[in-house]
TrEMBL record:
TM region positions: 12-33, 45-65, 85-105, 125-145, 157-178, 190-210, 216-238
Name of the featured protein: PQ loop repeat protein
Gene3D superfamilies per record: 1.20.1280.290
Organism lineage string: Eukaryota, Fungi, Dikarya, Ascomycota, Saccharomycotina
One cellular component term from this protein's GO annotations in UniProt: membrane
Keyword Lipid metabolism in record: no
Length: 243
């Protein structure tokens, strides 16, 4: 607990702004789905893997920061809040990523621009993600409440699973973009913000006191693959512009 005492105001401010920025970086994607009323160009499997990865990463941090929340009884409110900023950042990312799927299901329903087969896939994926979150939450609550010795192994499993999902989630999207030859409803503005921001975020997580590899590795993997996807979208926007 001592490492979280006398926290830096500058560090707190930067981390807080980063949490807000993480959520806001997804807003261009949310807006684009609303404007186009179609999920064209967005791979359903990209949404599935991305949402599940976000959930797993969040559950990983929830478990690993339990000790920090226990420390709050011996910390000032400022130091306690600072110790939870990593959790807040991950929660912001997981929520904003899940909103992409939610908005796709909501805004493309009944849209003349949305293919019925694709919409059916979105609904199925929405249900799978909801079930996954429920089951995962149960597996997380059990060790936190009744089996403390399982907290670290389960948390590391969630972090490793999140890393695997984050590493492969971009492959179906890269394939979809390559086949379509344009970004479609995928927001390039979002990726322009997130790609450098993802590397910055991973770096700040690595440098945080008590950092664990299973917490930051998913974001480093995701940022690297998102850079590949962004490069592909930029290339097609230059070589095959849509009139």
């Amino acid at each position: 607990c001592l490492i979280y005492r006398d926290s830096s105001l500058l560090s707190f401010t930067i981390s807080s702004l980063l949490a807000v920025g993480i959520f806001l970086s997804y807003v261009p994607q949310h807006v684009r789905i609303y404007q186009r009323q179609t999920s064209e160009g967005i791979s359903p499997f990209f949404l599935l893997l991305g949402t599940m990865s976000g959930f797993s990463a969040l559950l990983n941090v929830v478990m690993l920061t339990q000790m920090l929340r226990d420390c709050c009884s011996s910390l000032s409110w400022f130091d306690c809040a600072n110790s939870q900023l990593g959790l807040i950042q991950v929660a912001a990312q997981a929520t904003a990523a899940a909103l992409i799927l939610v908005l796709c299901v909501h805004f493309t329903r009944g849209s003349p621009f949305q293919m019925l087969a694709e919409y059916a896939k979105l609904v199925s994926i929405y249900r799978v993600c909801s079930a996954y979150l429920l089951v995962s939450a149960i597996f997380v609550i059990y060790p936190l409440v009744w089996a403390p010795g399982l907290v670290t192994p389960v948390a590391n499993f969630q972090g490793l699973f999140a890393t695997v999902l984050a590493s492969i989630q971009y492959f179906p999207q890269i394939y979809t973009t390559w086949r379509l030859k344009h970004a479609g409803s995928l927001s390039m503005n979002m990726m322009l913000i997130q790609t450098p921001g993802g590397f910055l975020w991973a770096t700040t997580m690595i440098l945080r006191p008590g950092s664990v590899w299973s917490t930051w590795l998913p974001y480093l993997a995701a940022a690297s693959l998102q850079a590949v996807l962004l490069s592909l979208c930029v290339w097609f926007s230059i070589t095959k512009p849509i009139e």
